Amino acid sequence: MPEAGSADYSPDSTRMVYSPQSRDFRPEKRYSGGMANKLYIFDLKDLRHRQITEGPRATRDPMWVGENIYFNSDRDGHFNLYSYNVASAKDNPGHAEQSLGRALAQFRS
User: Fold this and answer.
1) β partners of residue 84
2) What single-letter DSSP state applies at residue 47?
3) What mean pLDDT is predicted for residues 12-37?
4) Own/partner long-range contacts of 20-29 (Cβ < 8 Å, ≥24 apart)
5) What structural domains does the chain harbor?
6) Which of 62, 53, 61 shows the shortest CA–CA distance to 90?
7) Which helix (H) or strand (E) holds 106?
8) How far apart are CA 58 and CA 41, in angstroms?
9) Strand, coil or helix: what is 40?
10) Residue 30: left (phi > 0), alpha (psi -120 to 50), or beta?
């Protein structure tokens, strides 16, 4: 992993989800320039990474819970909670209340 601004370990500690850019003290609301955060998964065994988010808007603050990675993004114009399912490699397009409820239920168990 070349550089990380924020990251979280997978539950089995073999991978990390991270963003290469630090966002400390930097406003990002509706920012869509070249420094918009993207998220990657880094495999700690084979030292490879792959990008898991696309688009011009920022994605940030990843949290890995079970087989899902939860993160903030303003891809729809408002910062909202999104999730990415690692097993299916599919993005949840932003059902914040449902995603948050699942994340809290998994975190509490």
Assistant:
1) 69, 91
2) -
3) 74
4) 23/58, 23/60, 28/58, 28/60, 28/74, 29/74, 29/79
5) 6-108 (2.120.10.30)
6) 53
7) helix 96-108
8) 16
9) strand
10) left
**CA-to-CA distance for 57 and 36, rounded, in angstroms?**
6
pLDDT for the residue numbered 60: 83
Q: φ, ψ for residue 108 (rounded to 5)?
A: -75, -25
Question: Measuring CA to CA, how many Å separate 38 from each of 58, 61, 90, 104?
Answer: 6, 10, 15, 24
DSSP helix/strand/coil, 66:
coil
User: Residue 11 carries which side chain, given as an amino acid letter?
Assistant: P
* Average pLDDT value for the chain: 79
Question: Which amino acid makes up residue 25?
Answer: F
| Residue 19, phi then psi, degrees to nearest 5 | -120, 130
- The predicted model scores a pTM of 0.76
AA letter at 108 = R
The whole-angstrom distance between residue 25's C-alpha and the CA centroid of its chain comes to 19
CA-to-CA distance for 109 and 107, rounded, in angstroms?
6
46, pLDDT greater than 90: yes
CB-based contacts of 90-97 (< 8 A; 24+ apart in sequence) = 91/52, 91/53, 92/68
